[in-house]
Amino acid sequence: MDFLRPASWQEALAAKAEHPTAVPIAGGTDVMVEINFDHRRPEYLMDLNRIADLTEWEVGEDTVRLGASVPYTRIMEHLRAELPGLALASHTVASPQIRNRGGVGGNLGTASPAGDAHPALLAAGAEIEAESVRGSRRIPIDAFYTGVKRNALAPDELIRAVHIKKADGPQQFSKVGTRNAMVIAVCAFGLALHPGTRTVRTGIGSAAPTPVRATTAEEFLNAALDEGGLWDNGKIVPPSVAKRFADLCSAACNPIDDVRGTASYRRHAVGVMARRTLTWTWESYRGTRRTTEGVA
Amino acid sequence: MTEHSSGPSRTPTRAATGPGPAGTPLGAPSTLTQGAPASGGIGESTLRPDGTLKVTGEFAYSSDLWHEDMLWGQILRSTVAHAEIVSIDTSEALALPGVHAVLTYDDLPTGTRHYGLEIQDTPVLAHGKVRHHGEPVAVVAADHPETARRAAAKIRVEYRDLPVVTDEASALAPDAPLVHEDRDDDHSRHVAHPNIVHRQPIVRGDVARARERADIVVEGEYTFGMQDQAFLGPESGLAVPEEDGGVHLYIATQWLHSDRRQMAPVLGLPEDKVRMTLAGVGGAFGGREDLSMQIHACLLALRTGRPVKIVYNRFESFFGHVHRHPAKLSYEHGATRDGKLTHVTCRIVLDGGAYASASPAVVGNASSLGVGPYVVDDVEIEALALYTNNPPCGAMRGFGAVQACFAYEAQMDKLAERLGMDPVEFRRLNAMERGTVMPTGQVVDSPAPVAELLRRVKAMPMPPERQWESSEGADVRQLPGGLSNTTHGEGVVRGVGYAVGIKNVGFSEGFDDYSTARVRMEVAGGRPVATVHTAMAEVGQGGVTVHAQIARTELGIGQVTIHPADTRVGSAGSTSASRQTYVTGGAVRNACRLVREQVLELGRRRFGSYHPAWATAELLLEGGKVVTDGGEVLADLVDVLGDEAVEAEEEWRHRPTEPFDPHTGQGNGHVQYTFAAHRAVVEVDTGLGLVKVIELACAQDVGKALNPLSVIGQIQGGTVQGLGVAVMEEIVVDPRTAKVRNPSFTDYLIPTILDTPDIPVDMLELADDHAPYGLRGVGEAPTLSSTPAVLAAVRDATGLELNRTPVRPEHLTGTG
Hints:
A: 3-stranded parallel β-sheet; 11 helices; 13 strands; B: 816 residues; Aldehyde Oxidoreductase, domain 4; 7-stranded mixed β-sheet; 19 helices
């Protein structure tokens, strides 16, 4: 195994072009496990830790440009207001030590359906800034996950950053595991209210071959909220609507039975989390609306 | 550290682990010298000499051993559970540069090629077939661990699959494959089928007649999942070949002499050429009673003439030791309307997996303790262990009594409910006490405060409700799901449950359960110092602390050195069965008393003529001096000893026990009984089926707490291990293939600190007059009652029947 240590982003892109099988490593929280367990023996390992740019973030007008290697701890500490869903998800990642090392770029690169960041990114809305020697492009998050542990990156591309929409309303994230900390998701759910566009977005983790949005549920809820004038009148979401939304989120799952949980449980739990996170965010929206006249 | 009377330093010291005398590996244990404030004797909470080292990461574990020129061993394990081995081709592995040896069954040096704790049924390396997933097939030694791994991967093993035996139905079916074809062990003669390792019935009274008196009868079927010891520090050790053709093994184990007894015949060496030294042990919980890499490392060292180190990683560790027996349990309990038990019948089927390990003794415990700490005159009990192609199961904290306790306590709750009685009052009404006759006919002849423990645990204050509520909203750390943020109080229901259990202490059924201690006293640095030398495995239980306390109490001095445990002294028996403080503690006490007699004799010889009290008074050793029982100082020990060292050795035994009758189960089989009771308070998110244990209060009789801090640590640790198997811990084995599905800490979950509740402990000290200082074994009892208490609390919260453990979210949400 050859160890590549590019000193700059340009060097990294050149190395990746030369060795498309090179596996990038930043925090190593996925890659090192695979190497230690002998599940994977890449020909080239490319250490991105010398590229300082990858651990930086910029808060723009509408989006946050989050460097691929910004550790989860930083997201929790510094971006709780701009990226509340991702901050909550970050807090559920493994242990403090791992949160100090791991970042969103690794989650996206691995593209495991169990990655904790995915539901929050799907719900918030995001684009992945992918780059190669051929140039840079933005991949919408909805088009990024292409299969079990597969993503839309070309072999010569690296993830440089993620552009995530700044929260314009409440966001929530819930994750089920069978212990109270340090656990891989049995299933997870992210929900974001976007009062600006009067839409609700969702993200489901570990309950389908890839992270997915519950688009039918979103469409149903968006219509119901519109129809009831709820964005304006701030009334509670009728229980029948919340229940239907939860059922549609369950229906968006395509889970399996595995050692962590049954398919039936995952469908059920996603429904429960959908209903609860809708309640929490909507209550929060109603509260914010009352105190700030609807300006998030 | 100035005067004898002020006592020596509080800070434990440890010789630096630099390169030792020639031939001693780095990371090998050195002596532990402990001083103590005040007297530092028994009953005080002196601190562990290795505690700070472990917390700061300086403690040398067996995986830290290092020797110049050492090779690394690697084991190739079977990828299937049950298969014929058609061929093994090691040529590619041997051809790899850096590889020094590749051994298979055919390379074993003698005709003894099997080992085992009770039945020698386990091949050192697989022969002809493999019987479980992960069975050792070949071993490799190479100059780098990575090379050894690569080489093992190059060994070509061709398997021809055999049908798997995975449960009682498949094990006892008419055409069932036999896991062991040619059994000739002692148990094989009295079992009905060769796939039954051992069966123990216990019959007492007349159940048929007693049943007629019962106003209420409840039946239940229960399932107990496979728990792993999940100890700190995976299996590891270092074998160093010696000039006389022998071998010296530095090893993390629970019983050096038992290992050596099994190893020597396979190595073709007399026992005195197999030297053993205990290396740093992380934990054990029963998982180090069987051999793991001991023979493999020694074989490779003897073959290559080089030191060989083997270290399992966590994945391999899941295959490298036995687990707690999963069990199916069927119970029938009867009671009169006024709440007195009439009878109990039970059938306990333990899955022993592919090799016997400790299964026969586990069967003995499960059967003899099968009705729990209750007075019942009419019982019919049957316990048996199966041979299957599942992972081998054997010793784990609680040892057969854990599975039974889970089931009989569920039954007691069911009965109480049917009777309309409070579950604690119903238990108290039937609680055993001193003088109660066990189902085996054994009369309990020491305190058995079962009713009192229940009363105490119930009387503890309840934790406040809704602790998650704060002015800033819900504190999710206080809620089921924790930081995963699954509820802010929605669906959360509190439940409370109680349980009590009974465990035996020490090795039972006629086993010659002894321990050896050698104690030496001499003057060093101008002070009297004692050295305690035993072969006791310190696996975290605190023997190294307690032995020093005993020596201080018996010899009246402050400075005590604990010699590394090795085979240069006689056997200390196993660090298991809650027995070490009792048995090796007893040996240390008696050896100290022999030393004391010799010291006094020396004093009489040297100073007897100076004071008449030397001849007439009762003499004691206190504060480094010889004193009369009236408190008069006769001499300083420094002067009594002079240049002489006084040494004594004691081989100490507890009261003998008897085997159980193979047909009736009658016999005085156990040494001592120990009891703990728990109250569990849980909060269950009924929407998601997630459980948070809020509090696990425990009351336990410990006879005499030699070190109260250590005792409370044992009780809290045992409680958490019981919590683990209540709500998360289970090795999942695929019933079609008998392969392990979750051999990692990613998917075998153990409680984190966020899963660990408050554990208030109410410690009772009712002396057992038969035991040293009146003490009672502590370590296992809390593991028994913790699990059923949690399950009872979850049932209370949810109203669900819940007849299996661990309980998983799908069981609580009907989505299984």
